[in-house]
Amino acid sequence: MCRGGRVFAPTKIWRRWHRKIKVNQKRYAVVSAIASSAVPSLVMARGHKIESVPELPLVIGDSAEKTSAAIDILKQTRNRRYISRKGSLIVYGTEGAKLVKAFRNIPGVEVANVERLNLLKLAPGGHLGRFVIWTKSAFEKLDSIDGSFDKTSEKKGYILPRSKMVNADLARTINSDEVQSVVKPIKKKVKRAPMKKNPLKNLNTMLKLNPYAKTARRMSLLAEAQRVKAKKEKLDKKRAQIPKEEAAAIKAAGKAWYQTMISDSDYTEF
Fold first, then answer.
1. Running DSSP on this structure, what letter comes out for residue 16?
2. Within 10 Å of residue 220's Cβ, how many Cβ atoms?
3. Cα pseudo-dihedral 94, 100, 103, 105, rounded to 10
4. pLDDT, tens digit, for every residue of 33-52?
């Protein structure tokens, strides 16, 4: 038991827990999340089973009043009853609708009002493509809340963002006749810089700089060969075996020199 202990790694009051983001940037993120919920590939990438769903976005009526009726709807859309992870998001449009009480007890299913959409519910974990089920009243309010390309929004100073490209097929745009007629032709001949060689290692490069280098190289090789030959002859002469007559003459000359040295010195033999 530890008395007077403390919590490990407590939350620091000076840590920046929240970040301020521009209002229009939040609105842009919300409409992007709503648009991605209508793309089947993004919805299936999140793990939702929508093979039996007739269309995306899915719009239902406001008739679900009990949880049993809500489960029947989810069986048709999700093909499973019990949801452990993040499941569908039910968006309603009428305040105080009975549909909220019908869906709120199902685990994994969340309910949101179309006028108070939360980005964390539309894209949990920052991943787009959540399966959103719209009620008819909520779906009809989208144009008035966020606006459209022809109609202004109820939000002050907000315009629904338009797509930057009319045609999203980039390969088709690049290969079109309008673009290909303006761009420069393909360069088939590639001009590369010549590789510089070291004249100290490459003889041909050295001869271009100094034509006498070949003669100097030959003279140095001949001189080296003569030195090696002379050294070998000298070693062979030293290592050659001396004849007996010559060895006897050398020995006699040594004895004579010794006798001469003794006779000329002050020392006498006893």
1. -
2. 10
3. 170
4. 998 888 888 888 888 888 88
Other beta carbons within 10 angstroms of residue 104's beta carbon come to 13
For residues 86, 90, 95, 97, the Cα torsion angle rounded to the nearest 10 degrees is: -110
Q: What is the pTM of this model?
A: 0.53
Coarse DSSP helix, strand, coil percentages of the chain, rounded to the nearest 5 percent: 45, 5, 50
Tokens (6 digits) for 168: 């999203």
Return the DSSP state at 265.
S
Q: What is the pLDDT of residues 175-214, one digit of tens each?
A: 889 999 999 888 888 888 888 999 999 999 999 999 999 9
Which of 125, 126, 95 is closest to 111 using CA atoms? 95
CA atoms within 13 Å, Cβ hemisphere of 3? 0
Question: Nearest-CA neighbor of 147 among 5, 30, 242?
Answer: 30
With contact defined as beta carbons under 8 Å apart, do 40 and 50 qualify?
Answer: yes
Give dist(CA 53, CA 58) in Å, integer.
8
Exposure pattern of 221-258 as b/e (b: 16+ CB <10 Å)? Answer: eeeeeeeeeeeeeeeeeeeeeeeeeeeeeeeeeeeeee
- DSSP secondary structure of 179-247: HHTTSPPP--S---PPPP--TTT-HHHHHHH-TTHHHHHHHHHHHHHHHHHHHHHHHHHHHSPPPHHHH
Q: How many Å apart are CA 51 and CA 44, to the nearest integer?
A: 9
Task: Take residue 220 and report the two structure tokens written for it.
Answer: 């140095």
For residue 45, give both structure tokens.
């990438």
